[in-house]
Structure formats: C-alpha cells, structure tokens
Amino acid sequence: AVVSTQSTGIMSKKLAEGIGSLVLDVKSGKASTTDSYEQAEWLARMMVDIGHGMGVNTTAVLTEMDTPIGHTIGNSLEMIESLECIKGNGPADLETIVAVQGGVLLCDAGVAASQEQGEQMIRNTFRDGSALDKFLQILGNQGVDKKTLELLKKGEYSEVFAKPEYVENITAEQSGYIEEVNAMALGRATVLLGGGRQLPGDVIDPAVGIKLLLTKGDQVKTGDILAEVHHNGKLSSTLRTRIEGAFLIGQNRAPIKRVLAVVKADAPTVDYEDYRSQH
C-alpha cells in the first residue's frame, strides 16, 4: 500500500505537466526508499504502467543506491558537484546516470536514433557548454542576479556557496580495496552534522557535508584520505566513528555498477547493457 501510494503521488505530479515522454530514475539499495531490487522493479513497473495508461511514453531506469552518487553529500557540496558535472568535469558515475537517462528520453521522444547516440548527445552538451548555458538561463529566469550567474559560470563557487569552518580527514586504517561505501550511513551522518532536518523546524546548514576522495572500487593504502568531513562545530568521536564505519576495506575490487536495468510498458525488464545494444 505504501509503494502504491508512493507511485500514484509521484506520477500525478509528473503527468500534470502535460508531457509526452517521461523517464523515471528508480533507486535500489541501502539509501533508497525500497527494501530490495525486486521492490524497486515493482515500483518502477507500476509507475511505467500508470504513465502508459495515461498516454505518456514512460520509461524507468533502475539505478544502484548502495553507494553515494558522485563524491559529495551535503547541500553546497552537491550543488558544486552538479555544476561541475554539466561542465564535463563531474564524477564518472554521476555523468553516466545523467547521460543514460537523458539518452533514453531523447530516444523515446524521437530526437536520437539510438540509445548510444542519445547518450553522446547529452555528453556533448557538457563539453560544448550548452548544458551550463541552459541551466544558467533557467536560474536567470527564476530571478538569480547576473553577478551570481557569472560567478557560477567561472567556477568561483566560494563567492556563492556557504563554506564550513572546519574540514577534517577520514583516513584508511588498512590497505586493500574499498568494497563498500554505505550511502545511508553517510547520509544520516550528514543530517547529524546539520545538513538535514531531524525535526520539521530544524535549520539546515548548507556548508556541512562529506566529500569522498576515494570510493567503491578504489585501491587504498593505510593512511590514505578516504573523505573530508565539512562541519561547523566539534566533530564528536561517536559521529567520526560512524563515518569511518561507512567504509568497508577488503581484498576484493568491486567497482560501482550504477545503472542496472530499464523498464518499459508491455515488455520485460532488461539489463541496461542489453537494452543499450538493442536500442
């Protein structure tokens, strides 16, 4: 019932926009709202069927959410990373998610002849500056002043976004490979730093958060810096231990597989790599 209510709530807002095509990002993993891959697939299928039933060409892309997307958790940090992504300088997994889902949308809308072409068209907008220009145009239309837009375009983020008073390093206690970075644990830690609300009236501190210098699949040596903790007060030993515990280091290299599968109406769920080769 919860998933059913979630799907209708999401889709009612999307369909009210009067769109012809829709791509949904449905997460599966420790930091998602679903308990398993199967539940994520069921939620995706339900929303795709709702969209299809309302005459909208709807596709869902199932993506992994065990590991943090990109390298940052926190308001200012994530905004900076997003801007760097549309400049073509973002983390590979973040760019891949955007390119894949944008590619699906371009194919569904008949703008791209193949999934591969659609993804390349999206990536090209990062490299040629058109994605950034369009985003800044949107900001300007919403009232952001010209000086701020110029600073964002130049990458002078320290003039725009809140900065923390303190930055502390989290280091590796052993050598090996990072087998896991628990996204939910780091998300909750960021809330405790002040980056999210525990109660409705809490004030969010946009400067705090966690920046990953290494992530799942990376090789590390004892003493390497795994992450920076950006905060505006004393970092308690309990919270520091919680952040350290989000990193599992072992001897097995397990790179992130961010995009999992594609769900379309009246068709079985398809592994993303198979979908890409077929479309």
Could you describe the 3D structure shown?
The chain is an alpha+beta fold and 279 residues long. Helices cover 44% and strands 20% of the residues. It has helices spanning 2-15, 37-53, 75-86, 92-108, 115-128, 130-141, 146-154, 183-195, 237-244, 272-278; strands at residues 21-28, 57-64, 72-73, 166-171, 176-181, 209-212, 219-220, 225-231, 247-250, 259-264, 270-271. The strands form 3 sheets. A 4-stranded mixed beta sheet has the order 1-2-10-11, with helices on both faces. Helix 1 (2-15) packs across helix 2 and helix 6 packs antiparallel against helix 7. The mean pLDDT is 94.
Provide tags for this entry.
279 residues, alpha+beta, 4-stranded mixed sheet, 11 strands, 44% helix, globular
Strand order of the largest sheet: 1-2-10-11
Biggest beta sheet attributes: 4 strands, mixed
**Radius of gyration, whole Å:** 20 Å
The termini sit apart by: 34 Å
Write down the overall mean pLDDT.
Answer: 94
Percent of residues in helices comes to 40-55%
Q: Tell me how many strands there are.
A: 11
Q: What portion of residues belong to β-strands?
A: 15-25%
Order of helices and strands: HEHEEHHHHHEEHEEEHEEEH
Count of DSSP-assigned helices: 10
Question: What is the approximate shape?
Answer: globular
Task: Give the arrangement of secondary structure elements.
Blueprint: H1 2-15, E1 21-28, H2 37-53, E2 57-64, E3 72-73, H3 75-86, H4 92-108, H5 115-128, H6 130-141, H7 146-154, E4 166-171, E5 176-181, H8 183-195, E6 209-212, E7 219-220, E8 225-231, H9 237-244, E9 247-250, E10 259-264, E11 270-271, H10 272-278
Parallel strand pairs: 1-2
Antiparallel strand pairs: 2-10, 3-6, 4-8, 5-7, 5-9, 6-8, 10-11
Helix pairs in contact: 1-2, 4-5, 6-7
